[in-house]
Amino acid sequence: MQFSALGSSGESVSRVCLGSMTWGIQNTQADADAQINFAAAQGINFMDTAEMYPIPPSADTSGDTERVIGDYFARHPHARKDWLIATKIVGPGFPYIREASDISAASIEQALMGSLQRLQSDYVDLYQLHWPNRTSPHFGKHGINQVKSSQTDVAAEKANMIEIVRALDNAIKEGQIRFWGLSDDTPWGIHTFLSICDEYGFARPVSIQNEFNLLHTKDWPYLIESCVFEDIAYLPWSPLAGGMLSGKYLDGARPQGSRWTLAQRMG
Could you give all domains of the chain from N- to C-terminal order, each with its CATH number? Predict the structure, then answer.
């Protein structure tokens, strides 16, 4: 297994990260156990999840993926130290998660406590902001006129970002998280967060997790340049475009048990 630096964290993670968003809906606890064990045997030490998983999301299953992971490590406590576990706080938009509210200091405290309880862990290695509060081109919304950036109150957005990073920095100091990162964000988001961190002395983000595959290359080269120059790890999600690039859906095929039989989601 090859390893890469996780940005400025000082940690090295496997080039392959074990995703988990199907655990609890397409995959059972036994399936997840087998996948974790297999991944560990291949030298993988990096696992990613989120408070809203599994996908497709619903009020009935929200948080179940973290519960699956927590159940595994409750039965294999010796293995926890061998993994760098990343999870995410949901952004605004889901009525059944904190009434669709924006990310704030209060929501970070509530969400983090929930994740720690479900993961049955005292800490999270990498805590990520799943998507920004402001309108942004996440989840495939990068076509012309799909995002109205002019509608954003920049001063209010920056004030909120200061509040967010202060809360994350406090969580780091309290030992609840080790590092923090971004997800589904933009070059403006990266550099605004970095400026805030440098001005206030807060811990910098060590990573950003964005969609990247042969069908979605919007981050190359502009956002990637920011990552290289600022020592931020780039974590691509959906490298096979939701399975499209695997060839399994050619000619309209929908194999039994495949993701697109639940929801056709790409981007």
Answer: 3-136+152-261 (3.20.20.100)
